[in-house]
């Protein structure tokens, strides 16, 4: 009561593109009168029975929704059992703030301060026992919906944050192991069965490395593989988790900015083939993503800039100055809406059509972040929008690559050669996928290439 369930529920549902169901309103609609009237005429026991039925109805709907439960709803054993199949987010609020919010309401159980505070204290252990995650704002609810835990210092609590009690194995590249291996080992304690060292960078995303990890792993099907590192580590380890014993749980602990705003979120895992990047993989959503921003303190500036390009991309998509946590939530929401990348998730490709063309023409010597920065310029120009933000934050510089090769690679990436090309652009009301004439797209690409 007074935690802001209705407001935050509605806000997070809008971000997730889901329906919002407020159980209290549902009870009133079903009963045809107010909760206060039900309490007054028939007492609390009758209200709880109606509430139990309304919760069961809301939880049985097939379409995913954000459902706000009244503070006392989890007093029902039946409701608690039903919640086991859903993700439960505990909206934490300090009791005095909650009281200040509800004291003037006409809620039957908020008429007396000391009774209210006693009730709050009594319910707390119940909430603690049921919650999969805690949150205090809409962004937190969205992150919780995707299993993303965001906390400075979370590495030290990794043992508690990996769901379940079963054995775990840790995979990390040699650089990350040297920096954070000891702390991760200490946090995992006796649950940790083995540590698997991977080569740093893109070399990890090779079938030989996957094969080695498949063979080395001693986890059984109940075990969890923890990937500690950048996008290369989480892509490889996530893919191994998706395939080892036909799939085991995994937890991502991203240590790069790319990882924390992009690669660890959304369940895409994979490895490279000689013919191209990410050509083999699986959708396998991690059981949890643990984001500890303090791990970025050791990240070289060069690597940070890679992530900055994706962060600026996300701000453009959202049309708002998101911080890192809100950017992670933005991607989480899009991916939950479209887990298999068949619709809205394509919006995340803003600037990437151009970036992929340039990267291929540079034989992948051009860092992805720099290519994305240039691609964003092209997308903004085609959208007829100002490029100031990208120029200031990312300072993209034209690259000396062969224009013919870049164009051929762009067409290959799009798997088409017709007169029109699909691109993500920004409009008045946000991003959208559209077709543009090939000549226009080619001109935008060529403007990114240094001549001479
Ligand atoms: N699955 C997805 O949705 C998705 C999305 C975006 C990118 N990706 C993939 O992610 C990969 C790129 O990820 P990346 O940029 O994180 O690269 P990375 O994993 O290679 O890490 C970059 C370098 O930083 C080092 N490093 C990592 N954390 C560090 C830390 N805290 N301090 C110091 N050094 C650290 C690593 O050892 C490595 O050398 C690409 O292969 C890309 O395809 C995947
Ligand atoms: Zn990217």
Strand proportion = 15-25%
Q: Major sheet, described briefly? A: 6 strands, parallel
Mean pLDDT: 94
Spans where pLDDT lies below 50 across 5 or more residues: none
List bound small molecules.
nicotinamide-adenine-dinucleotide, zinc ion
Distance between the termini: 67 Å
Helix content: 40-55%
Strand order of the largest sheet: 5-12-9-8-6-7
Instruction: Determine the structural class based on helices, strands and strand pairing.
Output: alpha/beta
Question: Your description of this structure?
Answer:
The protein is an alpha/beta fold and 452 residues long. It has 19 helices and 14 strands. Residues 310, 352, 368, 372 line the site of zinc ion.
What's the short version?
49% of the residues lie in helices and 17% in strands. The chain is α/β, with parallel strands linked by helices. 42% of the residues are buried.
Topology diagram in text:
Layout: H1 5-16, E1 19-22, H2 23-31, H3 35-60, E2 65-68, H4 77-83, E3 89-91, H5 95-102, H6 113-130, E4 133-135, H7 138-145, E5 148-150, H8 158-161, E6 168-173, H9 174-188, E7 192-198, H10 207-216, E8 224-229, H11 231-243, E9 249-254, H12 257-263, E10 268-273, E11 276-283, E12 288-291, H13 301-318, H14 324-337, H15 352-361, H16 368-383, H17 388-394, H18 403-413, E13 420-427, E14 430-437, H19 438-446
Parallel strand pairs: 1-2, 3-4, 5-12, 6-7, 6-8, 8-9, 9-12
Antiparallel strand pairs: 10-11, 13-14
Residues 173, 175-176, 179, 200-202, 205, 229-233, 235, 255-256, 258-259, 262-263, 266, 268, 277-278, 295-296, 298-299, 303, 306 line the site of nicotinamide-adenine-dinucleotide.
């Amino acid at each position: 009561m007074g935690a802001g369930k209705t407001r935050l529920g509605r806000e997070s549902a809008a971000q997730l593109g889901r329906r919002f169901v407020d159980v209290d309103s549902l009870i009133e609609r079903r009963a045809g009168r107010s909760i206060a009237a039900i309490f007054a005429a028939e007492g609390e026991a009758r209200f709880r029975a109606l509430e139990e039925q309304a919760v069961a109805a809301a939880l049985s709907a097939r379409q995913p929704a954000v459902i706000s439960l009244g503070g006392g709803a989890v007093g029902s054993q039946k409701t608690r059992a039903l919640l086991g199949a859903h993700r439960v987010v505990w909206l934490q609020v300090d009791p005095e703030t909650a009281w200040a919010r509800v004291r003037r309401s006409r809620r039957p159980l908020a008429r007396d301060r000391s009774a209210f505070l006693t009730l709050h204290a009594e319910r707390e252990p119940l909430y603690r026992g049921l919650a999969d995650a805690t949150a205090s704002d809409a962004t937190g609810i969205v992150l919780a919906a995707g299993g993303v835990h965001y906390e400075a210092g979370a590495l030290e609590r990794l043992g508690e944050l990996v769901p379940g009690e079963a054995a775990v194995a840790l995979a990390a590249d040699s650089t990350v192991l040297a920096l954070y291996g000891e702390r991760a080992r200490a946090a995992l304690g006796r649950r940790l069965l083995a540590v698997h060292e991977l080569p740093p960078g893109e070399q990890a995303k090779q079938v030989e490395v996957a094969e080695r990890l498949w063979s080395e792993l001693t986890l059984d099907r109940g075990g969890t593989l923890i990937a500690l590192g950048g996008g290369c580590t989480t892509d490889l380890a996530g893919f191994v988790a998706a395939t080892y014993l036909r799939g085991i749980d995994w937890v991502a602990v991203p240590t790069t900015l790319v990882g924390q705003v992009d690669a660890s979120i959304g369940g895409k895992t994979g490895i490279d083939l000689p013919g191209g990047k990410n050509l083999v993989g699986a959708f396998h959503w991690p059981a949890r993503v643990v984001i500890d921003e303090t791990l970025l303190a050791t990240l070289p500036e060069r690597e940070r800039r890679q992530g900055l390009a994706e962060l600026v991309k996300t701000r453009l998509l959202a049309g708002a100055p998101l911080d890192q946590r809100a950017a992670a939530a933005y991607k989480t929401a899009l991916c939950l809406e479209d887990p298999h990348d068949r619709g809205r998730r394509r919006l995340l490709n803003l600037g990437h059509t151009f970036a992929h063309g340039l990267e291929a023409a540079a034989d992948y010597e051009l860092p992805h972040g720099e290519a994305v920065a240039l691609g964003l310029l092209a997308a903004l120009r085609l959208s007829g929008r100002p490029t100031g933000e990208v120029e200031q934050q990312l300072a993209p510089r034209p690259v000396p690559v062969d224009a013919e090769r870049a164009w051929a690679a762009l067409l290959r990436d799009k798997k088409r050669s017709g007169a029109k090309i699909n691109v993500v652009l920004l409009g008045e009301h946000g991003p959208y996928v559209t077709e543009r004439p090939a000549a226009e797209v080619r001109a935008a690409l060529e403007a990114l290439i240094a001549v001479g």
